Amino acid sequence: MDRTDYRILREIQANSRISMVELSRRVNLTKTPCAERVKRLEKSGVIKGYFAALEPEAVSAGHVVMVQVQLSRTTAAELEEFNAAVQRVPEIQSCMMMAGGFDYLLKIRTRDIAAYRELLGTAISQLPHVMQTHTYVVMEVVKDEVTLSLPALPGKRMK
Known about the structure:
Blueprint: H1 3-14, H2 20-26, H3 31-43, E1 63-71, H4 76-87, E2 92-97, E3 104-110, H5 113-124, E4 130-137
Antiparallel strand pairs: 1-3, 1-4, 2-3
Domain HTH asnC-type: 1-64
GO biological process, one term: alanine catabolic process
GO molecular function: sequence-specific DNA binding
């Protein structure tokens, strides 16, 4: 990837609905080469998709908890089974395997604490191989970005 690719990525992250004409203008390319670069970035998996950023409160998902999960065992098969099951719980917004005193950290969004309590009993505690969970209620979301901070200078070249 070169500087132009990074400029394209910055613009698309800021506004995924930008027209190709406007994107081309902002990165100082003509429309066809700009469109070819975007297609290459999509095909190579650098651009994974496009989405709308929603206001959580407006869609009844304003309550956030972080949940530490400790599994009873962590063999490859059990980790795969847990990972697959997490994918099927839509309220789990992110799931990260951790090094340290617990195995996973989940970010969960629900309508309110009662909805989370129900989810904890019906889905989270029922995930495969869960031995213990610790829930931390988020009192205020100060920063919750989905965009990536891109380096000023590109690293290695993309094939």
